[in-house]
Amino acid sequence: MGLDFGALLPASVFRLIWACASIFICILACKGRESSTLQTSTPSVLPAAGSIDPTILQNRSFGEAPVLAALVAEGLLPPVSERLPENPKVRAPFQSIGVYGGDLRRGLTGDIIQMPAIMKMMNEALLEYAKPRGDSTEANLAESYTFEEGGRVAIVQLRKGIRWSDGHPFTADDILFYYEDVLFDDNARP
């Protein structure tokens, strides 16, 4: 049995509490980072928008977050060149190259209905809309794709060396599992 706040508080007091809580949450969401946590160093030479220096891919010399570099130094994580696929998806910066660390702050309105926006930031897809305009699709976890038989059949070539966050290989079996045992299984979801 739930607690009936309407019986405990007059409606006007209840609305005032919710309004204050909402304003407080909005203020917290808008609060900036402390200046001491900002990293001010930027690379001296930035690649042109939409391109990457080919020697980075040839030499497999990638940057990584300091917290991950520390795990590599401790021997708890393989080097970044071993964690990335043979031909990684490289996105050109939209506005500028970001900095490692910080907080993700996003104001939510309403209930769990906002969850899909957060899930979009945390998931990767086989194909994705081209950035920044989204007027076409491009390969993401897939290295290439084609459609045949009037668009009824998709041929997808996965990038070699893609791994789950726990280090296990990501394969076509994972995609089949999703389609056969989750998406098309009526017993897998309500």
Describe the structure.
The chain has 190 residues and is an alpha+beta fold. Among the domains are: 45-84, no CATH class; 116-190, Alpha-Beta Complex (Dipeptide-binding Protein, domain 1). 33% of the residues lie in helices and 10% in strands. It contains seven helices and four strands, in the order ααααααββββα. A two-stranded antiparallel ribbon has the order 1-2. Strands 3-4 form a two-stranded antiparallel sheet. A hairpin with a 4-residue loop joins strand 3 and strand 4 (153-158). The radius of gyration is 23 Å and the shape is extended.
Note the run of SSEs as H and E: HHHHHHEEEEH
CATH topology of the domain at 116-190: Dipeptide-binding Protein, domain 1
Which CATH top level class of the domain at 116-190 fits?
Alpha Beta
Q: Which CATH architecture of the domain at 116-190?
A: Alpha-Beta Complex
Global geometry = extended
For the sheet with most strands, the description reads: 2 strands, antiparallel
Query: In whole angstroms, how far apart are the ends?
Result: 24 Å
Helix % is 25-40%
Mean pLDDT: 74
**The CATH homologous superfamily of the domain at 116-190:** Dipeptide-binding Protein, Domain 1
Count of individual beta strands:
4
Strand order of the largest sheet: 1-2
Sequence stretches where pLDDT stays below 50 over 5 or more residues: 35-50
Radius of gyration, taken over Cα atoms and rounded to an integer in Å: 23 Å
Summed up, the helix count is: 7
- Structural class call reads alpha+beta
